[in-house]
Write a structure and sequence with these properties.
Low-confidence stretches: none
InterPro entries: IF-2B-related, IF-M1Pi, IF_2B-like_C, Initiation_fac_2B_a/b/d, M1Pi_N, NagB/RpiA_transferase-like
Mean pLDDT: 97
Largest sheet: 7 strands, mixed
Strand content: 15-25%
CATH topology of the largest domain: Rossmann fold
Order of helices and strands: EEEHHHHHEHEHEHEEEHEEEEEEE
CATH superfamily of the largest domain: Translation initiation factor eif-2b, domain 2
Radius of gyration: 19 Å
Strand order of the largest sheet: 6-5-4-7-10-15-16
Bound molecules: 5-S-methyl-1-O-phosphono-5-thio-D-ribulose
Distance between the termini: 35 Å
Structural class: alpha/beta
Number of helices: 9
Family: Belongs to the EIF-2B alpha/beta/delta subunits family. MtnA subfamily.
Number of strands: 16
CATH class of the largest domain: Alpha Beta
Number of domains: 2
EC number: 5.3.1.23
CATH architecture of the largest domain: 3-Layer(aba) Sandwich
Catalytic activity: 5-(methylsulfanyl)-alpha-D-ribose 1-phosphate = 5-(methylsulfanyl)-D-ribulose 1-phosphate
Helix content: 25-40%
GO molecular function: S-methyl-5-thioribose-1-phosphate isomerase activity
């Protein structure tokens, strides 16, 4: 089933906070409910956030809300993934054409997400096969699978396309502290796909690469700056450094909507800092502080290539 969808004039989405134990579908009838779902990561992952933003503006129009005001609120629900404000502004641009036109645009973005991610997955798989041969072991981070999109996935979409070609070996995945998008969501998706996989703690990711267990790293992105810097889930940057040291490709898989030509470099991207309570717990002494960065910046020179639904970018200006 789709991660997020529009049915009977409302948004439906899988509550990802409950996975893998419970598959629960939530019905979202108001913009406030949507914003709550985005903030607590019931819906998450850059392309899915783009679709959520688009559907949220359509929902505001359908509910007779002040659409501009609600659009602004949705855009700010999470700051780092550019897809969220991208999806919002695509549908807001249809405001003059009325509610039906806005709903149609949001549904178009939703359908397009599936097609575009399937395209980029197949392009990325071909790129890897051309360089690494017919059987490839990979390392990934966080969840850039179907759950981070409407269907199919970006980084895990490349893995899916490798599987179509009988070219996927083993997948290593970081558990992705503190909310475990890797251990909970990516492992669940790989299990459903019937792909051999191994979960490691985040700090073991570089060791997996140093020991030659993976032939390439594939990750998604939340925002790609104009100079090619890649912003993705915290823990991506150490993997890029380790891939560089190990001399293996570091591939970023993302739709064109993740490229932000208005942000010159990664240093200008707002990095979401989430609640310290996600890190602190019974294991930490009372009074300890936590700094819960949700994303990091991988400098462009550590990225071997970016595969999108339209092109492969390696070393050339993004345009
Ligand atoms: O905090 P999350 O779970 O929304 O972070 C998601 C990621 O960092 C993904 O790697 C990224 O959005 C790409 S998803 C195709």
């Amino acid at each position: 089933m789709r991660t997020i969808d529009w049915r009977n004039d409302r948004i439906v989405l899988i509550d990802q906070t409950l996975l893998p134990g419970t598959v629960k579908v939530i019905h979202v009838d108001t913009v406030d409910e949507l914003i709550d779902s985005i903030k607590r990561l019931a819906v998450r992952g850059a392309p899915a956030l783009g679709v959520a933003g688009a559907l949220g503006v359509a929902l505001a129009a359908k509910n007779g809300d002040d659409v501009r005001e609600q659009a602004e609120k949705i855009s700010k629900a999470r700051p780092t993934a550019v897809n969220l404000s991208w999806g919002v502004s695509k549908v807001l641009a249809k405001l003059d054409q009325g509610t039906e036109a806005m709903i149609e645009e949001a549904k178009h973005i939703l359908e397009d997400d599936i097609r575009r991610n399937a395209d980029l997955g197949r392009r990325g798989a071909q790129w890897l096969i051309d360089r690494l041969g017919p059987r490839i072991n990979v390392q990934t981070h966080c969840n850039a699978g179907a759950l981070a999109c409407v269907e199919w996935g970006t980084a895990l979409g490349v893995v899916r396309a490798l599987q179509e070609r009988d070219a996927i070996g083993h997948v290593y995945l970081d558990e992705t502290r503190p909310l475990l998008q890797g251990a909970r969501l990516t492992a669940w998706e790989l299990q459903q796909m019937g792909i051999d996989h191994t979960v490691v703690v985040d700090s073991a990711g570089p060791t997996v690469l140093a020991r030659g267990l993976a032939d390439a790293v594939i990750v998604g992105a939340d925002r790609i700056a104009a100079n090619g810097d890649v912003v993705n889930k915290i823990g991506t940057y150490p993997l890029a450094l380790a891939a560089h040291r190990a001399g293996i490709p570091f591939l970023v898989a993302a739709p064109e909507s993740t490229i932000d030509p208005d942000t010159p470099d990664g240093a200008r991207v707002e990095i979401e800092i989430r609640d310290a309570a996600e890190i602190l717990g019974e294991h930490t002494p009372d009074g300890s502080k936590a700094l819960n960065y949700a994303f990091d910046v991988t400098p462009a020179d550590l990225v071997t290539a970016i595969v999108t639904d339209e092109r492969i970018i390696n070393g050339k200006p993004l345009g």
